[in-house]
Amino acid sequence: MSRRALITGGAGFIGSHVADLLLGEGWEVVAVDNFDASYDTAIKHRNVAHNIGRKSYRLSELDIRDSALLDEELSGKFDVIVHLAGKAGPRQSMLDPELFESVNIDGTRSVLAFAKERSVPRVVFASSSSVYGLNESLPWNEEATPMPISPYAHNKLTAEYLGREYSSDAGGFTALRFFTVFGPRQRPGLAMHKFAELMLRREPIPIFGDGTACRDFTFIGDIVAGIRAAMDYNRTPFEIFNLGSNRTITVMEMVKSLELALGTKAKIAWLPRDEADLPASWADTAKAGRMLGYAGSTPFQHGVDEFARWTLAMNEVSRPDASLPIAQSA
User: With the C-alpha atoms ordered 270, 184, 125, 296, is the resulting torsion angle positive or negative?
Assistant: First the structure.
């Protein structure tokens, strides 16, 4: 009998990739997504179009905050819930903190109540490196003191606390703190995606500060592998893991990689540093490596090349300078 997984946020960037992996392994997948209008819903529909109609795949359009509808629409037992649904973005959360709290905190309460009612053995939760905030002790390990500076980061930390409570009297809960995830299907609005689109249109890209801010960019394939390992983890009822690449890439290094992969030169609009942006993020992934067998090992340029191929295909354009081959990473 095949195993059964519920993926919230299942039509999104990460969720659709998780569904693909599980379907390939023979799982039955139930995906839930409310197709939030924060960006074009056609993008999410495109993410999952290739799975629609498969016997082992079901997509339900509903809001995780609606507990009654969750119970009514989602029948049967689940072996695991991968909880990826939520409002994303530190800067965006400052514009509408009440909505972010409702979706990210109340929504998580609803999912955990559903999990408890159905006796789900394990919930895997998408947390964020944003919880570390202003902690300057880089690289961050899971024992680093959280110092969140946005409603979004506070939401994620609160959801982790809810998960700890859930694990004390219900099922297992594993929180995964994702570090800047990129790759095919990345949602619009994130820096790499935004920069690539602007570069293809020959428009200036906005860079805040001097371009030396750095991020731990993590390829989607590594993140999905980490999620999959966390689904099988059962040694402790509650655990937190960083999922990153354990390396940093500056904004300007990212731009140079995009130039190489897209075959075009970036025009830069220099802007004052945004106080909402952290100067750096950097994951210590030793714990995930030791306990999950995780390795965020995809070379950065290789990941950018994959992202560039997808971006060009989605835009249905040729590379601006077709004489330059897409970089081949080792």
Answer: negative
CA-CA-CA-CA torsion for 53, 36, 123, 283, nearest 10 degrees? 120
Which is more confident, 273 or 326?
Answer: 273
DSSP code string of 124-141: EEEEEGGGGTT--SSSB-
CA dist 210 and 314 (Å) reads 31
Residue 152 bears catalytic tag: yes
* 12 in Cβ contact with 84 (< 8 Å): yes
Tens-place pLDDT, residues 302-325: 999 999 999 999 988 555 554 444
Q: How many Å apart are CA 4 and CA 50, to the nearest integer?
A: 19
How far apart (Å, rounded) are the C-alpha atoms in residues 286 and 294? 9
pLDDT of residue 169: 92
Determine which one of 57, 132, 152, 294 is catalytic: 152
In angstroms and rounded to an integer, the radius of gyration of the C-alpha atoms of the chain is: 19
Tell me which residue has tokens 């944003």.
Answer: 130
